[in-house]
Amino acid sequence: MPSIFVVVAIPLEARASSLRSHPAKLYTMGAPQYNWQHLAKSTPTKTCHQRYNAIGNSRGEAVMDHRERVWTALNHQVPDRCPMQVSFTPEFAARLKSHLGQSEASQHNPHGGGNTYALEQELDQDLLLTSVGWANSYYANQEYSQGGDIYTDEWGVQWKNSPYQTRYGRGCYTEMIGHPLAEDDAFENYVPPDANRPSLYEGARRLIRDLGRDYWIVGVTVTTIFETAWALRGLEQLLMDFSINPNLADRILEIPYRYHLTAAKKLVEAGVDMIWIGDDVGTQIGVDVLNPVQPKCMDPVRLKKLYGDRLCFWGSIDEQETLPFGSPTDVRAEVRSRLRTLGKKGGLILGPTHHVQLDTPLENFWSMIQTIIQTPYSSV
In angstroms, rounded to a whole number, what is the distance separating the alpha carbons of residues 131 and 267? Predict the structure, then answer.
């Protein structure tokens, strides 16, 4: 089953002036060939963007900036090329930094919290993520235990690093092993983190200040209700609560709901362009964008046919087979297929269905980036 994330729309005034002639609205969730790997190793930040500009200008085509490109696609219109957003596990990010010659030592947060965005800018991505909430507890052993394999986050959830091995090295997934509300009587004395702390939003404000005029900024509050609730209680116990102790289940669900609602409101006040939430709430609140489109269990062509006039889509490049186990030719073909189908007449933010994993060959990764950036819609 896919993990379903939805992106909701809320009116926005805070950044209307930066949208130039665009109405004020907040959204909630063949090119010439060259040696891309050599270019990435040997050239400074923004070279990908400069190269694409050069390609567009050589054809006499207008080249959009990041914000204009995303805005156009989300309004079901055709931009110069498809907007792109790619996230990575910390291990793949470290490998990519080494490949690009970046010296930044901090651990990468795939949800965007605390990052420098050097990788995202180098790759010429169009959307930048800034995250507040329990999802930042994933891959957080550096923050909570100075790199140890077991840590407890500020919510009281205990985690451990579970290692795995790939042909490109060793990685770790973080798994929950302790739940602060596992016992019924723990609820009465439980104090959740305070979502009103100004320090939580310093990263978002800094990102908007420094890069918000150029990039589409996404406020991330994923794991919005259910996933955080079962992290607090334990999945099996919460599922039983729905049947035998529904009042307690409701009170536990209320904790992450109130926290992430506050976080989303404050991110909107800070000036993000989009709020990304993650739960089965699409039919209850309405959404603009569906993320991810997971082709192993969702038909992208059928999705576009049934819902493309009402929904935009985000993701759709297969992270289960094509990226890790296919060839660069397979990756190029899948990108172009998505542009012809799911991205027809706009409405698509293209990228992998999930964080790029450590087992992904760099040649496949660069094939995806190259094909997205170098393929104008006029050539599809």
Answer: 9
